[in-house]
Structures are given as structure tokens and as C-alpha cells.
User: Fold this.
Amino acid sequence: MKICAVICEYNPFHNGHRYQLEEIRRLSGCDKILCIMSGNFTQRGDAAVFGKYTRARHAVMSGADAVIELPAAFATAPAELFARGAVHILASIPAVKVLAFGSESGNAEDFLRAARAMLHEDKAFRAALKAQMKEGTSYKVARMQTLLALNSDVDETLLTSPNNLLGTEYCRAILAENADMVPLPIVRRGAGYADTSILKDFSSATALRSVLGKNGFRARRALKRNLPAHVYADARNYRALDYEVAALCALLSNSEEEIALTPDCSEGLENRIRTMARTNPTFYGMLEKVVSKRYTRSRIKRIVMQNFLGIRLKEVKSFLSAPLYCHMLAVKKEGAEELLSALAQGTFPLIARKSDFSLLKRDALACFLMDSRANDLYNALSGTHTGDFDTQFV
Assistant:
């Protein structure tokens, strides 16, 4: 069996995602599509609009063959750790031969060339990066500018466009893990990654999140046109969570020293964030006071979320070099036995039922318990109950 993997969030799953799965089926030459999807919390520092089991079911009903969970330790991390964690897990499955991802442009070799440049960040690179950072530029922008200055053969769009940059990080992770898989860029259709405009049928997830929960005719029409029917049925019952209040309380409950241990925190940001949380006691009031040219909104939101979930950089780094697990969220009934058998051939244990939990040791156990805590917190926020072993056969 030959499997094509997709690293995703599906927050929410929309027509553009369905198009991507159709293109993967057409272009990859693979027998099955395996999604590794963020759980209940996302890389932008937001609680997911639907729980992980609901979103996994949406994906399988829309063309995926199975969905496994990207652990919270990686799902809420900056792009490099997000990509590396996902590829670390996928590389443990021998049948995964292709990694597909959305892109604005570029072919596989373009992405690999840019990824190789990112792998060789030597003394000259670090010196140039430090000089860029002194100008008050964010790390992300300074790193991009330094890479382009030192690598004239790298396509600038692969380091500046959102999907392209993440695709380059995926390729970098493939090279770093020495993974036996090839990249497959799929050109994105419709709105851009962060486009807030509502289009007729291919709006971005960002735009669709902005109208979830609204009862007006235009909002309902936008969702109905842009979401598959089974996703729209759940969207009609969407209810926003009180995550921001809980996250702010967690900031005030923890010390600066504890906040400083999160993956995205550095340069004394813990002091600024906690001070602003005390003096601006609303989530977005705090956020506006901390965000700057150097410290992006997404980064600050991730720090707050990492603190809320109890995620520490030291643990995330140890997970990257440890045998972990493949936690099954949903699988298509048709062909499930064959696919589950292929996944079970991997070097990491397949977690599909409660008895499989006993297979986890040390770092894998610590990582899974972090996922379990994130699941419990999401359940408390949403007023629902999903267990740790609720694999769905769709």
C-alpha cells in the first residue's frame, strides 16, 4: 500500500480542502489518503471551532481515508516545530511515501531547494540574522530576509507566501528526518490563507470563522456555499467557547518563570505578557498592548495557549527525538482493515482503543497525557464529553 499524507487543521473543513483531497487522489498515485490533524487547539493560538472528532469525521466524509491526531505539543507550536512534529510521526509509517500540501506556487524541487537553504543556517547566517533583528524586525521576517540575501537561487515566494512557507518547513522536516517521502505541492484554489473576503464557494477558513455563529441571511448563505453539506449541518449549531477568559485566568495563575518555559516565549516576553494581563484584564485588551512589529499576534496567542495547556519547550524538544504514537481519530469503514494494518506496521504504536494505551512509555506517555489534558480542557469549555479513545468508523 502507498499512502499520501496531509498535515492539516480543517478549522473548519471547507470546499478548498475537499478540492485538495480530490487533487491528491488524482495526482499522487497513492492508494489511501492519511490526514494528520491538529486536535482541539490550533497553531494560530485558537480553540478549534469544532472538536477534533467532529473535524476528523468531516474529513473522512469528504474524501480522506483516515485521520490521526497531531499532538497538542506540536499543533500549538511555531511553524518549524509544527512541521517537524508532524513529519516525525509520519516518517514512522513505512507506507507513507508522499506528503501533499497546499501552496500558492512552486514545484517539489523548488521547495526542496529552499528547504536545503533553511537547513544550513551557519555562522554567517546567524550573524546576518542578528543584524536584521536589531532593526526591530520579527524573527520570522528577519529569518526570511536573511535566507534570501544569502541564497540567490531560492524563490522568494516560497519564503513569503503563507502556504509556501509552511510547505518549505514541511520539506525541511522531511530532510531533517531523512524521511522516505516526496513532497507534492497542490496549488491552492480560491481565497488566500488569511483572506477575510467571503467568496461564492472557495473562501478561506479565516473568512468562514468570522461568520460562524451569525444568524443573518448572508452569513448562512456564505457557510452553505462554502462548506460541504455535512459540515454545514454542524455549523448551524456552532457555539463560541469562552476560551479567552480561561486563557487569561491561566496567565494570571502562573508565574512569569512558568510562562517563560513555553515554546514561543523568549526575550523576557513573559514579563510583558503577564503585566499587560494584570493591567488590561481582557484577552484582546492584553493582546493589543503586547503585539508589535517584532512580536506578532499569532506568536503572542500561541504563548498564551501553550501556557493554558501546560506545554513546555523542553518537553516538545524531547518528543521530537522520541518514539511517539499514531492516535486514530477517524477511519473510513470501507478498506479500514487494510489501512489499519498498514499503519500498524509503523515503528510507533497505533492507538485506536483503550487497551492500546498500555503500549506507551516515557516520552510517548507524557505526550499523550498532554493531549488528554487538552481534550479535557476543550470538553470543559464546550460542555461536551469526548474520551481519549473514541475512534470513529465513518
User: Anything to note?
Assistant: Strands lie at 3-8, 32-38, 66-70, 96-103, 182-187, 326-331, 350-351, 392-393. The mean pLDDT is 93. The first strand starts at residue 3 and ends at 8.
